[in-house]
Amino acid sequence: MSVQAGPSAYTQEDIDLFREGLSKFLDAECPPEKIESWNRNKIVEREMWTKGAEFGLLGLSVPEAYGGMGADFRHERVLIEEFGARGMEGWGVPLHNMIVAPYLIAFGTEEQKQKWLPGVVSGEIVLAIAMTEPGTGSDLQGIRTRARLEGDEWVLNGQKTFISNGQTADLILVVCRTSDNGSRGISLIAVEGDRPGFTRGRNLDKMGRAAQDTSELFFEDVRVPAANLIGEVEGKGFGQLMQMLPQERLGIAAMGLAILERALKLTVDYTRERHAFGKPLMEFQNTQFTLADIKAKAVIARSFIDACTEKLIRGRLDAATASIAKLWITETELEGVNKCLQLFGGYGYMNEYPIAQLYKDARIDTIHGGASEVMKILIARTL
């Protein structure tokens, strides 16, 4: 089940005003040439995190008591959609806001919240979560990174890979094994980025989402205070992950829809301008039918995400429903973007055309946050 307590006091008018302000900020601060530079450099400069914090972009759901705006998932969706409309999927603000910060909000001790959440909002602390290991993938119970308690310190050893915000993060929530008691031996421990023994490996060279600094992380006798255990009891990490994954998966579905909708818009515009055999591509029935099918599926996807969002903010989104959303929408995203690229012909294969970047960016969505095959296993358990 979702851990969100219930709908906030924000009205739809408030959400619309947030979208309007965000759109103006992104248009001013993130022009296409800047986004292209992020992709070239494979990272978003730290200055943008600071600017985002000044606007109020960071830590949207952090309670007002810790400096946030106490927003809900509707605000996160606006952020995802506005990023997606501009090809900004590589800037890891949604990860910071929607995936990692909620662990501190829901499970952190009062001391942890006071220590870290204000920095999450101000941009002084960029967040990451380290789940995946070279040999584990989606199998969280196969985690090998270990932490042992020595006096009043945890000592961590292990390796993580494919960690988004990995080069930038100041605080990493590390999924590790604190005992051999199966799933009850997994804990989340916060590691500050300047701890001795913690090193960042390569900024990985990926197929898509080039601006996202996705990294290898290494822990060699990294010592952190015992108080860095997320929550007050060791061995609760697996349950914490299971409670938060529905929101993460719904967020991935929302990003998949944003990419699909942008691909559709780009393709409609292109096929109206591009001529073949003496007339615009849009006048061919094949083009019309292809795009009509994509639009129909996008509208259905949006309706389902709306319903899931309502469940989430009321604390009623279950894991199976979130898995259905991620599975169907991300698979639909891949199919739709592929068909859109086909309508661009040879130009769709050129990196200078945004549709080519969308094709590469979309490919990860059926993999991260739990691969489609894992989603099917979770759904099958409800049959």
Written account of the structure:
This protein starts with 11 loop residues before the first helix and ends with a helix. The chain is globular. The chain is built from eleven helices and nine strands. It has 383 residues and is an alpha+beta fold. 49% of the residues lie in helices and 15% in strands. α1 (12-29) packs parallel to α4 (73-85) and α7 runs antiparallel to α8 (285-313). The longest helix is centred in the middle third of the chain and has 37 residues, at 237-273.
Largest beta sheet, briefly? 4 strands, antiparallel
The topology string of helices and strands comes to HHHHHHEEEEEEEHEEHHHH
Name the shape in a single word.
globular
Q: What would you report as the Rg, rounded to the nearest angstrom?
A: 21 Å
**Fraction of residues in helix:** 40-55%
Relative strand content: 5-15%
Total DSSP helices: 11
Q: Which consecutive residue ranges, at least 5 long each, have pLDDT under 50?
A: none
Average residue-wise pLDDT: 95
Strand order of the largest sheet: 2-3-7-6
Protein name: Acyl-CoA dehydrogenase family protein
Domain Acyl-CoA oxidase/dehydrogenase middle: 128-222
Domain Acyl-CoA dehydrogenase/oxidase N-terminal: 13-124
Domain Acyl-CoA dehydrogenase/oxidase C-terminal: 235-382
What are the key terms here?
383 residues, alpha+beta
Give the topology, please.
Blueprint: H1 12-29, H2 32-41, H3 46-55, H4 73-85, H5 93-107, H6 110-122, E1 127-130, E2 146-150, E3 153-164, E4 171-177, E5 186-192, E6 198-203, E7 214-225, H7 237-273, E8 275-276, E9 279-280, H8 285-313, H9 319-344, H10 354-362, H11 372-380
Parallel strand pairs: 1-4
Antiparallel strand pairs: 2-3, 3-7, 4-5, 6-7, 8-9
Domain Acyl-CoA dehydrogenase/oxidase N-terminal: 13-124
Keywords: FAD, Flavoprotein, Oxidoreductase
Domain Acyl-CoA oxidase/dehydrogenase middle: 128-222
